[in-house]
Amino acid sequence: MAEVPPRPRRRPARADVLAIGAYALLGVLVCLNYWGDVQHRVSSHLPTDHSWFEWLFAHGAHSVRHLENPLFTVQQNAPDGVNMMANTSLLGVTLPLAPLTLLLGPQVVYALYLGAALSATAATSYWMLSRHLVRSRAGAFVGGAFLGFAPGVVHHANGQPNFVSNFLLPLIVVRVLRLGEPGRWRRNGIVLGLLVAYQIFINEEMLLLTALACLVVVVAYAVQRPHAVRAQVGTFLAAMGVGGGLALLLTAYPIWFQFNGPQSYRGLQGGVFHSWGEDLMAFVTFARDTVAGDEAVERTIGLTEQNSWFGWPLVLVALVALVLLWRRSLPARIVAVLVVVFSVAAIGPKVRFGGVETGVNGPWAYVPDDLPLVEMMMPTRLTLVVAGAVGVLLALAWDALAGTGRPLVPRQRTASGPSPAAGARRRWLRGLGYAAILAAVLPLIPRPLPAERIDPPPHFITAGGWRPYVPAGRTLVPVPIPSNVHGLHTLRWSALTGHEFPIPGGYFIGPNERGEGVFGAPNRPTTRLIYATMDANEVPAVTEEHRRQAVEDLRYWRASVVVLGTGPREAVLRELMTALLGPPQHIDDVYLWDVRDRV
Q1: What is the mean pLDDT of residues 449-470?
Q2: Is residue 358 part of a domain?
Q3: How do beta strands 559-564 and 475-479 pair?
Q4: 470 occurs within a structural domain
Q5: Which DSSP helix (H) or strand (E) runs through 131?
Q6: 79: nearest Cα among 445, 587, 560
Q7: What is the reported pLDDT for 272?
Q8: InterPro entries annotated for this entry (predicted)?
Q9: How far apart are CA 329 and CA 158, in angstroms?
Q10: Which of 218, 242, 264 is the last residue of a domain?
């Protein structure tokens, strides 16, 4: 349902190859710091998320290898388990890549996939722009690069590959806009249904944002082209029905499992995400992971997701382009609507400016915390739609400057033909326009993501020394027990051994006693004692009640062995566990408490 300029029949392939090659190089650049020591490096900014997604790749491989239900696992948070559909499980990626994970390990596959997902998103965006919106290959390249490597997208690449796995979204948008084509409603509906169903297993939140953006696009188009819409609405609705019905048929059970299966939940406790609104100054600020970015700025605006950190040059260029294209380009007017709607919607419950919360209510002050579909959304992430709209605008502006779309500068003619002076002026303005776009986007080229070293699991774990101690149906209890705050290195014990033994605790979202979603397992008395000891770096007075509770907790976890390796607070943790369970065995490079005879 969009006006697409006519395309030449033949398109040279060289430009496409060069574009995809450039995107691949950018993907390698972003992940460069991981490859220096890929087995022992994680994101410096989100190391726990990085380890969680390594664990997810191992989960996909474990599910395929053992033919287990990938929607649920008891290899983490034993014995209760984790509802994988109710978490960011990335099943649409981890399951197909399971053979590669089994061959190379989750660390290598994580780094490979992260760069590939960024590049693939840029490539499908380039295809969408060059085949369906603009004729200029250079314009499509610039727009595709921004859509794949926008500052907000690269920010999420710090440990959250689900938010950079957007390669299906341009294909979904194209298919939605083609639903009104006469005579092809079944085919278009089926293709859309398949794409939507697959995207559900990659990132439901980005699918929701895309659906909201498509809704705004269709409404904006209908307002401006009512006659065209009346001619297409029947076909559009029929194709939409086919697509929606097919997607529902393919995903009905997984979605039911997500909301009604074991360890499902309803919303997050306290609606914690709703307070994450976008700071108005963020739009004109350079993101941390761009060549023009500076970490120090986070101390002024605040530590938040940098979804809209475009930098002031791009904001200025975008505003000028919208003004110049407004009367000439329907797609530009639709882009303007997207920018305004989603920029305003991204403001949280209170308007923030320069890191200071004002007393002015934002739109989310009027959104109930438990509203279905949006109950777990962060307002700031709505600006990812704005980033997509800006990428399209860059392609439109470049196309107009190149003269292949609606020109930004109208041609002036004399009675005898084009005016030489006007032609010279046009060439000068065209060069100025190209320079302005490049000056706006070049500072946003991503830098390699920062990475830090993390200690490998103990040899006792990786070499299988644990096997005689952990029979089927029992768990290995690592110390500290992993959570969203503690035990990052012990969570990796499970990931890097292919989930061969279940562990209690973990990094996930599960239900509390009221059915609300909370991060991690509800802390039992022994886990609280371990975390308090780590935080204080001092062993408290251990009582008989502590010892009794430790045995009760180990029985609940179905523990067979407690293992302490090298890591933070190793000395005080060994002293604490000795006070609780008695002297350990020192086997290989770990301290071990065999508790099978106690539980």
Answers
A1: 94
A2: no
A3: parallel
A4: yes
A5: helix 106-132
A6: 560
A7: 57
A8: DUF6311
A9: 37
A10: 264
Question: Can you give the pLDDT at residue 414?
Answer: 47
Buried b / exposed e along 334-353 (16+ C-beta atoms within 10 A): bbbbbbebbbebbbbbebbe
Peptide bond into 584 cis (omega under 30): no
Phi-psi map region of 271: left, alpha, beta (phi>0 left; psi -120 to 50 alpha):
left
Half-sphere exposure in the Cβ direction for 506 (13 Å, CA): 29
What is the total count of domains within the chain? 2
DSSP state, 541?
A: P
Q: What is the residue range of 223's domain?
A: 165-264
- DSSP character string of 282-314: GGGSBPTTBTT--GGGHHHH-SS--TT-B-HHH
pLDDT single digits (tens) 230-281: 999 999 999 999 999 999 999 999 999 999 999 999 877 665 566 788 999 9
Domain-terminating residue out of 243, 264, 285:
264
321 part of a folded domain = no
Rounded Cα distance between 476 and 466, Å, is 8
* Residue 503 domain-assigned (yes or no): yes
Return the structure tokens found at 316.
């200025």
Contacts of 61 (CB under 8 A, 6+ apart): 94, 98, 99, 101, 102, 106, 498
Strand stretches in 441-555, DSSP E: 451-453, 475-479, 509-511, 517-519
Give 74: exposed, middle or buried? Use CB within 10 Å, 0-12, 13-18, 19+: middle
Token digits of residue 474: 């029992």
- Distance, CA of 517 to CA of 509 (rounded, Å): 6
Structure tokens at 313: 């040059």
Rounded to whole angstroms, what are the CA distances from 286 to 150, 275, 292, 389, 574?
Answer: 11, 22, 6, 18, 46
